[in-house]
């Protein structure tokens, strides 16, 4: 049986300089290729969902269309607004792209392998707080968007940048709390160690019962998984949360004044952020580079060698499909509803879930079985009593239109007709009168004198 060797923190920092450069170049090429294919993939999938052909002219299946669009955009005129801050205007899209690529450097793409005789991990680097490094890069990307909107020297880009910063910062709170459950369960903030902790078949003890861990944290920590996915969509400014690009105005938000390569850099940063968030969801909740359980049951070497590159790429593509699926299915949310979802729904649920998980962890480790069962029974009884004795507030019946009309003060603006029927126009009344016979309303001929 072939067993994959999980990298540890001691395995990093010993690679030769040429291998480090090769890993950095490989990560850059991976992000660039995933961006090009991601644009093509999105346009093809949305076209299929809209029952139309989509890209099918440039290259087989339209694969060269994204490359052609990129070359065309690069050769377009680079327009610099007169009122723009030229230095900040130039560096803003660069900041967003660099932060997106930097986040991919701590994503584990496989176990320990041999490259030209050197044993190394399929990961650029790893530190004890790798997940926090990803969130730091995500927070720095906000500066690129805000500075891009401010440096344009125009009103609409400034409003789009501020709206985007408020959106990304708000959903970073829910996203940061959702990974607390992962830290508590895995016991580490290192990405390689989180992947190693998701090995299926590990024994766990839960309230005196010896169980087998399900492996993926998407199953074990499903509330955190769902909240993280929702927050990731809001963090990347994707539909139905693509409010910074345009809410009601016919402009592109913080990218309004950008053109040529600078505009392409902003577009690339969005898709690189999608790839980075998909890789983070895969690493934290979907087992990382490990193959799904049905494959490992009949193939012992599925998690060894270079095969894990295939599994993690497939998982990233599936998550990208979810991003595209949401765009093709859901309409854009209103901004106040979107912010209310983040602060008044996701945040309280996340806090309650963390408290419940912490209580379960304390009961499982520091309390004996008898006291644990008594505490669990008391919590269930208290929850049932609270549900039964909770006072129910009945809403008063809604007043009718007649009651609302009578309650209006004298001299107020007149109400429309109660049946909401607009009286016909004079032209319509004349047309009705012309169609009616002349003796309408007259007595029958036998009764006339």
Automatic annotation (TrEMBL):
Reactions that this protein is recorded to catalyse: a quinone + NADH + 5 H(+)(in) = a quinol + NAD(+) + 4 H(+)(out)
Cell location: Cell membrane; Membrane
Predominant location category: membrane
Membrane-spanning ranges: 17-41, 87-109, 129-152, 173-195, 215-234, 263-286, 306-329, 341-360, 372-390
One Pfam entry name: NADHdh
EC numbers on record: 7.1.1.-
Keyword vocabulary terms for this entry: Cell membrane, Membrane, NAD, Quinone, Translocase, Transmembrane, Transmembrane helix, Ubiquinone
Membrane topology: Multi-pass membrane protein
Description of how the protein assembles with itself and partners: NDH-1 is composed of 14 different subunits. Subunits NuoA, H, J, K, L, M, N constitute the membrane sector of the complex.
PANTHER family the record matches: NADH DEHYDROGENASE SUBUNIT 1, NADH-UBIQUINONE OXIDOREDUCTASE CHAIN 1
Family recorded in the similarity comment: Belongs to the complex I subunit 1 family.
NCBIfam families: PRK06076.1-2, PRK06076.1-4
Protein name: NADH-quinone oxidoreductase subunit H
């Amino acid at each position: 049986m072939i067993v994959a060797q999980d990298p540890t923190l001691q395995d990093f920092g010993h690679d030769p300089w040429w291998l480090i450069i090769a890993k950095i170049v490989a990560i850059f090429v991976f992000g660039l290729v995933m961006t090009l294919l991601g644009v093509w993939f999105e346009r093809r999938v949305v076209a299929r969902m809209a029952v139309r052909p989509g890209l099918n002219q440039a290259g087989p299946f339209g694969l060269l269309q994204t490359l052609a669009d990129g070359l065309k955009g690069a050769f377009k005129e680079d327009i610099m607004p007169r009122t723009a801050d030229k230095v900040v205007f130039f560096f803003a899209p660069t900041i967003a792209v660099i932060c997106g690529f930097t986040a991919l450097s701590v994503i584990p793409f496989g176990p320990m392998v041999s490259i030209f005789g050197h044993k190394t991990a399929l990961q650029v680097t790893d530190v004890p707080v790798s997940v926090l490094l990803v969130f730091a890069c995500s927070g720095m990307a906000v500066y690129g968007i805000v500075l891009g909107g401010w440096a344009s020297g125009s009103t609409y880009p400034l409003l789009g940048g501020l709206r985007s910063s408020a959106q990304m910062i708000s959903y970073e709170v829910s996203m940061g709390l959702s990974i607390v459950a992962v830290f508590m369960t895995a016991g580490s903030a290192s990405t390689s160690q989180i992947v190693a902790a998701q090995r299926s078949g590990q024994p766990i003890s839960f309230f005196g019962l010896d169980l087998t861990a399900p492996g993926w944290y998407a199953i074990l920590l499903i509330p955190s998984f769902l909240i993280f996915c929702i927050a990731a969509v809001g963090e990347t400014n994707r539909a139905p949360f693509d409010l910074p690009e345009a809410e009601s105005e016919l402009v592109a938000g913080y990218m309004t004044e950008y053109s040529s390569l600078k505009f392409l850099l902003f577009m690339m940063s969005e898709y690189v952020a999608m790839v980075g968030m998909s890789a983070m969801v895969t690493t934290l909740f979907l087992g990382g580079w490990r193959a799904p359980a049905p494959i490992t049951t009949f193939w012992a070497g599925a998690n060894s060698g270079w095969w894990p590159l295939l599994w993690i790429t497939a998982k990233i593509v599936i998550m990208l499909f979810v991003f595209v699926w949401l765009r093709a299915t859901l309409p854009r949310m209103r901004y106040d509803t979107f912010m209310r979802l983040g602060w008044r729904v996701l945040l309280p649920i996340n806090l309650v879930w963390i408290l419940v998980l912490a209580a379960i962890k304390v009961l499982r480790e520091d309390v004996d079985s008898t006291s644990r069962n008594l505490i669990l029974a008391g919590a269930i009884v208290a929850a049932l009593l609270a549900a039964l004795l909770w006072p129910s507030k009945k809403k008063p019946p809604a007043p009718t239109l007649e009651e609302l009309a009578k309650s209006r003060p004298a001299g107020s603006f007149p109400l429309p007709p109660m049946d909401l029927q607009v009286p016909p126009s004079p032209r319509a009344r004349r047309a009705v009168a012309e169609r009616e016979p002349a003796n309408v309303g007259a007595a029958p001929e036998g009764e006339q004198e």
